[in-house]
Design a protein that fits this description.
It contains 10 helices and no strands. It is an all-alpha fold.
């Protein structure tokens, strides 16, 4: 742990990609989304099915992205798109608070946008879950202490996101109210972190060459 925490490459992958992705999973998909949908009078069965759309998106995207990573090896670009697409999906979910959208089609359009947003987040996390492990396993740090040690440490530390997600979203609900607009702004932050990750990766690549 001490060695990986001294690696800037490892830390930026952890804090720009890994931890935010896990925080979105537990803080929004598992914690916040059921609360928001219940407050909007969605049935429990419908809430469960909407959440399962996320899982389906992860499974479908993972099968294609894994082969793409094997062919190209460009994990940094794939992780960037995973973060940006995740942010876009969260922004779409946040639109369910928009009154004009709720009035359109007797509320059906709002539900369609919601499902598309959840599916987009799931697909985006398919871009992250496996490629991020490959990314750290192929880093310079992995050549020094071993890929198994780096990936195991990464898997351990990314659990911070599982804990931080509900805590952060809970505080946002406490101060700004229990509404989907919070998710929209979280989406903006997630996409921005993806841009920072790619910028830092490109900068490090340029300096190494």
């Amino acid at each position: 742990v001490g060695q990986v925490l001294r690696s800037m490459h490892f830390l930026q992958t952890m804090f720009f990609i890994g931890i935010p992705a896990k925080a979105v999973l537990t803080g929004i998909i598992i914690f916040a989304l059921p609360l928001l949908l219940a407050s909007k009078q969605y049935q429990q069965e419908d809430i469960g099915q909407i959440i399962m759309v996320y899982a389906a998106g992860v499974v479908i995207a993972s099968s294609y992205v894994s082969r793409l990573v094997d062919r190209t090896g460009k994990t940094d670009t794939i992780l960037f798109w995973g973060a940006v697409i995740s942010g876009i999906g969260l922004m779409a979910i946040g639109l369910i608070e928009w009154e004009a959208l709720n009035r359109a089609g007797d509320g059906k359009l709002s539900t369609i946008v919601l499902i598309l947003g959840v599916a987009t987040v799931g697909i985006a996390h398919g871009f992250i879950n496996a490629p991020v492990v490959t990314h750290v396993a192929e880093s310079k740090l992995a050549t020094k202490i071993g890929a198994a040690s780096v990936t195991a440490t990464y898997r351990f530390l990314e659990r911070i996101g599982h804990v931080a997600g509900p805590v952060i979203v809970g505080q946002l609900f406490l101060f700004w109210g229990q509404n989907a607009v919070n998710l929209l702004w979280i989406g903006v932050v997630i996409a921005f972190l993806g841009v920072l990750f790619l910028a830092r990766s490109s900068q490090q690549l340029a300096s190494s060459t």
